[in-house]
């Protein structure tokens, strides 16, 4: 298991930007996939973005492509989600998650951070 702690959420106007951080600890990360998910009120949790801890492979939901960027800082054991051109429909609780390369499902989750985009 890996411990994940998110930060960086807040209130922003439409068109603005936020950067979420996810600090990871507890185990070696070289074989991990780190991801961001979000859950809006009354909706199911949905995938936002993911990347391997090593290497440059990334993936994004169609709804955020071109606006959001997932990156990581090895020295800080931190994964980031840079969110630009935010829209009211991006309002949700954002969760950081991790899974090993051998697992199909994300099995380590952070506590979540609220992002609210006003129109």
Biggest pleated sheet: 7 strands, mixed
Helix content: under 10%
- Compressed to H and E, one letter per element, the order equals EEEEEEEEEEE
Low-confidence stretches: none
The tally of helices reads 0
Tell me, briefly, the overall form. globular
Query: Using DSSP, what is the number of strands?
Result: 11
The separation of the N and C termini measures 39 Å
- The proportion of strand residues reads over 45%
| Computed CA radius of gyration, to the nearest angstrom | 13 Å
Rounded mean pLDDT is 94
Describe it for me?
The chain has 119 residues and is mainly β. It contains no helices and eleven strands. The strands form two sheets. Strands 2, 4, 5, 6, 9, 10 and 11 form a seven-stranded mixed β-sheet that branches. Strands 1-3-8-7 form a four-stranded antiparallel β-sheet, with no helix packed on it. Strand 7 and strand 8 (78-83) form a beta hairpin. The model has no long low-confidence stretch (mean pLDDT 94).
Describe what is shown at a glance.
The protein has 119 residues and is mainly beta.
List the helices and strands and how they pair.
Layout (H helix, E strand, L loop, with lengths): L2 E5 L2 E4 L4 E8 L6 E8 L6 E7 L5 E3 L7 E6 L4 E6 L8 E9 L7 E2 L3 E6 L1
Question: Keyphrases for this structure?
Answer:
119 residues; mainly beta; 7-stranded mixed β-sheet; 4-stranded antiparallel β-sheet; 11 strands; 0% helix; globular
């Amino acid at each position: 298991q890996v411990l994940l702690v998110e930060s960086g959420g807040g209130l922003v106007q439409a068109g603005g930007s936020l950067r979420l951080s996810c600090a990871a600890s507890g185990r070696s990360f070289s074989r991990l996939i780190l991801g961001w998910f979000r859950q809006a009120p009354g909706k199911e949790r949905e995938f936002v973005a993911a990347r391997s801890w090593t290497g440059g492979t990334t993936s994004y939901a169609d709804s955020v492509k071109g606006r959001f960027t997932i990156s990581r800082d090895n020295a800080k054991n931190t994964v980031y989600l840079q969110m630009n051109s935010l829209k009211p429909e991006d309002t949700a609780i954002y969760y950081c998650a991790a899974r090993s390369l051998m697992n199909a499902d994300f099995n380590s989750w952070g506590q979540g951070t609220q992002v609210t985009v006003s129109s």
